[in-house]
Amino acid sequence: MTTPVHVLFVCLGNICRSPLAEGAFREHVRKGNLSDRFVIDSAGTGGYHAGEPPDPRSITTAESMGIDIGRQRSRKLEPKDFEQFDYIVAMDRSNLRDINARKPFQTDSDISLMLDELGTHGQDVPDPYYGGSDGFNHVWNLVDEATRVLLERVLKESN
Ligand code: 4NP
Question: CB within 6 Å of ligand 1 — which residues?
Fold first, then answer.
């Protein structure tokens, strides 16, 4: 039995973008019959919403794709995440800076920017918190595609 690959998605509040990325990645993994090979989670660089479910607009957006993210609970990024997670994926450049600033000197975690998977460089998943529900659909489309490509990369790298 091989140890599962641990993948963590990180945004600011862990209620809008990273819960959608977690849900999208989990669905790609499920469709590939790979669920027992992965541990998937999400976290926020800030802990303002710790213990809360995702934003209702994120829940509705995922639901419209047939995916239930309603049981997720927000939590703050912790030092031990750098020991436990093989991949830590930031939603935007600000999250990436915060993650790198907290990174211990020694970590094997692969720390990356979500949309870099799509071959662009330095593009953010826009924060939809202060906008309307259109923003959430846009976020979904971005993270759905980027997590699909991420899964391909992770599978290649873990073979
Ligand atoms: P997220 O969105 O980082 O995608 O979860 C936000 C959620 C909450 C806040 C900001 C962004 N906030 O300021 O409370």
Answer: 11-17, 48, 127, 129
